[in-house]
Amino acid sequence: MAFGTLAGMADPSTYRPAPGEIPTSPGVYRFSDAHGGVVYVGKAKNLRNRLNSYFQDESALHPRTRTMVRTAGRVEWTVVQNELESLQLEYTWIKQYRPRFNIMYRDDKSYPWLCVSWSEEYPRVFVGRGAKHRGWRYYGPFGKAWAIRETLDMLLHVFPMRSCTKGAFNAAAQSGRPCLLGYIGKCSAPCVGRVGADEHRAIVADLCAFMEGRTGRLERKMTEQMVQASAEENFERAAVLRDSLAALAEAGERNAIVLPERTDADVVALALDPLEVAFQVFHVRGGRVRGERSWVADRADDADEGGLVESFLLTLYSDSAVPREVLVPALPPDAGALAELLGAQRGAAVNLHVPRRGDKRVLLDTVAQNAAQALARHKARRSADLETRNRALAELAELLELPEAPLRIEGYDISHLQGTQAVGSMVVFEDGMARKSEYRRFVIKSFEGSDDLRAMDEVLTRRFGRLLDDRAVLRDAGRDALVDPGTGRPLKFAYAPSLVVIDGGPLQVEAAQRAVDALGVTGVRVIGLAKRLEEVWLPGEEYPLILPRTSEGLYLLQRVRDESHRFAIAHHRRRRSAAMVESVLDQVPGLGPVRRATILERYGSLKRLRGAGVAELAGLPGIGRATAEAIVAALAADDAAPAVNTTTGEILR
């Protein structure tokens, strides 16, 4: 069923289906633009509820969804019988139409694979990239080309199959002389008839078995051959087999055994922020990690981990083989139907599940760390691009109506634990890049309860108070340079930001603006960035400013906000750790402030202090053995005592 306008009007009300026309059955729907191009494909258990959600008040829609419904000029749907059919049809349409508003995962580099040209009379093995040929066997992809090339070099000692090009093979056949690899034992030289086609294919089959993780049979066969050669006093042959076994073991050790030998799985993990998501996959074959790969994509909506995993798996297995097992961080909403779909593609059952403990959980955590690093690298590359930074600053100047690009941006955040150990952070971005030497930490002095507004007022008052003080120093000295005339040191607080970014919504923004106004500081724009929908709040405005999810300006604001949050959390944790160390040292008699400071400077946290023994502590300046033993005893007593929340009195452990 379809509804729409051929004119492709931007107003969604022009193609909204009439009330009652949309069925309540499960099905798959697609939005198309005025030219008939499909821009989005989705599925729903109840088509009416889902499609009606696209035609509600636009202010309630996700920014990317709002753009999609305005781009489209037509919506159509197909009713299906169950969730499996809806998943199959959605998968087919996404693969067929490649809709622009569905998540498209970008592989930010081309990964190499190991190829065996199985369909040729004399198969060749090589490392390559790009398009694949029907009838050839591929292994990987691998993270680093040099690693798989070195592995292949070792494998050719064990499995001396052809690795030369067609031209080199034909030239050797015509001349009757093999190439260098044939002379040094890394090729069985089928080009000159040293082995026949069947014997050469048997060698190739053994290499393929190794790459597929079936190493036990090969090792047993080679060991038996070595023992037999030795018994026949063919010591030269036995030595060759011995060296081949060693090379086989070394090639296998390049990928650590992480799971039982029969394990055939893909391990999938993700890292996400409000704007982007990164996926990492480890391909485990025969219990070994045979390859890895990462993708990054803009988030199309606010789908949870399960929804993102589902869309990614459909993309991943649209052009690659499905393994026996798929390990994921969260199950998709239609996990059963997805497993059935993947099983149909594989031709056998697929186990889709979340590991909770054991080696598989450890491996999943490792993959998640790699996903986080992939996202961080992507962000670093994006932020380091000069053209991108200039575009972000220009967008902010236009959207926030600034007189010029905000070359200096400062971000602020507050962190505390139920009203204790409250701290504030200030981070600085100049020309769109973090300037970490300008970061500042604040210990909140006037914090009561959980009054974040008062804490933010104190931080900004102290920061901009320093701005006015430094400017007064320069004015009294009759100088313009931002250097203290007395000490010659830079007056870093004398730099005024063009833009101040607060982590929060309208209440935090109003409090920050009041603090700046109370000091009479002008020329500074204050905004807030709320986490839930990435809304930009301006002082005195009833509604937030919604920037497009693809906006480089929004991306820069998010980085400033996230960095201020990270910096505040890190400062708070350090203070809390120091306070916990202090509380333990209070129990040690005769430990004065100088020796306390020595211990705090050396260890800084309870975890590190507990790792120190009596001998190590006794070696610190001013700490004798008796004092060291008293410290260890105090740590043992603290570890045995239950932890109590000082605010509620609740026992925590």
From TrEMBL:
Biological process, per Gene Ontology: nucleotide-excision repair; SOS response
Any one GO MF annotation of this record: DNA binding
Stretches assigned to the UVR domain: 216-251
Domain UvrC family homology region profile: 267-516
Residues in GIY-YIG domain copies: 24-103
InterPro entries (UniProt xref): GIY-YIG_endonuc, GIY-YIG_endonuc_sf, GIY-YIG_UvrC_Cho, Hlx-hairpin-Hlx_DNA-bd_motif, RuvA_2-like, UVR_dom, UVR_dom_sf, UvrABC_protein_C
Pfam (any one): HHH_5
SMART domains referenced in this protein's UniProt entry, alphabetically: GIYc, HhH1
Cellular location(s): Cytoplasm
GO CC list: cytoplasm; excinuclease repair complex
Keyword terms, alphabetized: Cytoplasm, DNA damage, DNA excision, DNA repair, Excision nuclease, Hydrolase, SOS response
Primary residence: cytoplasm
Domain of life: Bacteria
PANTHER family membership: UVRABC SYSTEM PROTEIN C, UVRC/OXIDOREDUCTASE
Record's subunit section: Interacts with UvrB in an incision complex.
Function noted in UniProt: The UvrABC repair system catalyzes the recognition and processing of DNA lesions. UvrC both incises the 5' and 3' sides of the lesion. The N-terminal half is responsible for the 3' incision and the C-terminal half is responsible for the 5' incision.
Family the entry assigns: Belongs to the UvrC family.
Name of the protein in question: UvrABC system protein C
Lineage: Bacteria, Bacillati, Actinomycetota, Actinomycetes, Propionibacteriales
